[in-house]
Each structure stands twice: as C-alpha cells, then as structure tokens.
Amino acid sequence: PILYSYFRSSCSWRVRIALALKGISYDLVPVNLLKDGGQQFSAEFKTVNPMQQVPALKIDGITLSQSLAIIHYLEDTHPNPRLLPQDPKKRAQVRMIADHIVSGIQPLQNLNVLKQIGEKKTEWAQNCIASGFQGNVPPFLTALEQILQHTAGRYCVGDEVSMADLCLVPQVSNAERFKVDMGPYPTIIRINKALLELEAFKVSHPSRQPDTPAELQA
C-alpha cells in the first residue's frame, strides 16, 4: 500500500491510525499542502486523486480517496481489530459520531475554507469547532460533547476503539492548534487523553511523520 498524506491533515491522520491499528505496513508519500502553492494541485497528484486532496491510498490494485471510505475498506478487508461494533445500535452511534465530525465540523475549518476567510481564520476556526463541540449556532453543527456523554465508555462508544475515535483525536488536535478553550468539554478531553495513550495513535501522530518539520517533531 501507498499512502499519500500530509503530516497535519486530520483526514490523513484518521487513515494512519486505522492502518496502525490493523497492522498494515505501507509506504508514505508526503504531499505538502502549502509548499509550491500546494503540491496537491500538481498534475502528477491529480492523476492519483482528481479531487486534489489527501489522503489517497493505493491498495490491492485500486486507489481510494476520502478518509471514511478508505477506513471502511480496511475494515472490510482486515476485520481485526474491528472498528465498527457488532451491536447495530452501537454501530449506528459510531457512524453518527464519525459523520458529525467529518461532515459537520472538520470541513468548516479545513485549509481551503481558511484560505477564503483570510486574516480572521483563527477566529473562524475557533467558532466552528466550539459550535460543533458544544452545539451552539449555527444549528447544523453537532452537540458532540452532549452526544458523547450518552455513548462513551472509555472511548467514544463503549470500551472498544472505533471509527469514531479515529475521527475524534485529529479534531481535538485541530481544536488545540486553533487555541479553542477545551474547558467546557470534559468528556472529549477524557476520551482524547485515553486514546493518545494507545500506540497506534502515537505512531500516527503528526509530530512523528516523515514530513513533519523539525521544529514540530516530538
């Protein structure tokens, strides 16, 4: 497998965690989203992913993009350890939380949006993340903290690491990078701390990637 990734991309981090949990070895090809106007816009990378986004994963003769699609494929082809619970209700909760993050919070503070916002990008990102965590306006963002209070055990849903956890940790990292006050979100803080103690989350961390700048390395 070949993973096209950027060290700070939360979408790429989700996939790196999944690959680590599943024990799948891969070659990493860094795609710098800032250098040279964004290497994702190069003609070479467009042949890999026409959407010109990371991550992209070449595996088993196909190329996949979109982090959840990649993770679902890894779940189907490498079912152990499982990232979706067997119980249908818990499985639905995992998918709900994952979708809340990847559709309701993260896209509003990704690089393409922040470029359009300009000088107020930090304030914009803080508001989007905080609204998504706490459930303030705008109304289409999620009350993630409240949801997790009902679903969580040690992790997002019960005591097994799931796809929801793969989405949560990178989003919390984004929140911390944009200096969001995490005080109102004790459940999110607790789960994130527990997950960061796991080896798969450590080795996939942005501070430990081949393309991590020296000043940001662990």
Outline of the structure:
With 218 residues, the protein is α+β, with helices and mostly antiparallel strands. The chain is 49% helix and 7% strand. It has 2 domains: 2-80, Glutaredoxin (3-Layer(aba) Sandwich), CATH 3.40.30.10; 88-201, Glutathione S-transferase Yfyf (Class Pi), Chain A, domain 2 (Up-down Bundle), CATH 1.20.1050.
Plain-language structure description:
This protein is of the alpha+beta class and about 220 residues long. The protein folds into two domains: about 1-80, Glutaredoxin; about 90-200, Glutathione S-transferase Yfyf (Class Pi), Chain A, domain 2 (Up-down Bundle), CATH 1.20.1050.10. It has ten helices and four strands; from the N terminus they run βαβαββαααααααα. Strands 2-1-3-4 form a four-stranded mixed sheet, with helices on one face. Helix 1 packs parallel to helix 3 (about 65-75) and helix 5 (about 110-115) crosses helix 6 (about 120-135). The longest helix has 18 residues, at about 90-105. This is Maleylacetoacetate isomerase. Belongs to the GST superfamily. Zeta family. Keywords: Cytoplasm, Isomerase, Phenylalanine catabolism, Transferase, Tyrosine catabolism. GO terms for molecular function: glutathione transferase activity; maleylacetoacetate isomerase activity.
Termini Cα gap: 26 Å
Assign a percent range to the helix content: 40-55%
If helices are DSSP runs of H or I spanning 4 or more residues, what is the number of helices? 10
Query: What global shape is seen?
Result: globular
Biggest sheet layout: 4 strands, mixed
What is the quaternary state of this protein? single chain
Rg (CA only): 17 Å
